[in-house]
Amino acid sequence: MARNDNAPFEIHVHGQIALRPEVSYEQLQEALKPLWKYAGARSLADGAASVYEEEPGLRHDTQEHQLQMCWTVAGAEDFRQALDEMCMGLNELSLQGAAIEVTFYDKEFDEEEAAEEEESRDDFLMLFVGPSPAAIMQVQRDLLVQDVIQLMERHFETTELAGVVKEIDALFNQRFDALVSSLEIGKPPRGTGGSGHSGHGGGRKPRHLH
Question: HSE of 189 in the Cβ direction (CA atoms, 13 Å)?
Fold first, then answer.
């Protein structure tokens, strides 16, 4: 079902989004339309499968009211537009904030044959969706705290890091207050439909296999 066998990237989308209980399959199909349409499919059922059989693809868990994403498609830089549109659609269906990892793998780069100065065009994005700016900021905050604690635990005891967490919370409170005071509460905050983290080249991130 690959859209283009000559596409420069294999793009992997990975995440788990809690959905409102009343969300229907038809609503989810519409929200995910940018993805399955990009893959050249005519419906979610047709486009839900990943290019790799071992990946679950795009799956609606009706028992747990979750969207599970472990899906790879061949594509190019224009896939970023599809991601933006998907995030806007999922915002309206989500129950709480969630992160979505997107990895672009350079299909033409060969680590073994590449010259020392050559770098791959790999890229990694962290996208965020949620029913409100506050919900999105909460999951952004939680991930940042997790990353910072994990990094600093190499040098300090966890009990010594309460002040660091307090400062992170203060920064997010300032951002939310600024969002409210500027009357932009109806607009997605920075990070929604965009990248929270992005990097090029360097060590290649292993592809998810579940």
Answer: 24
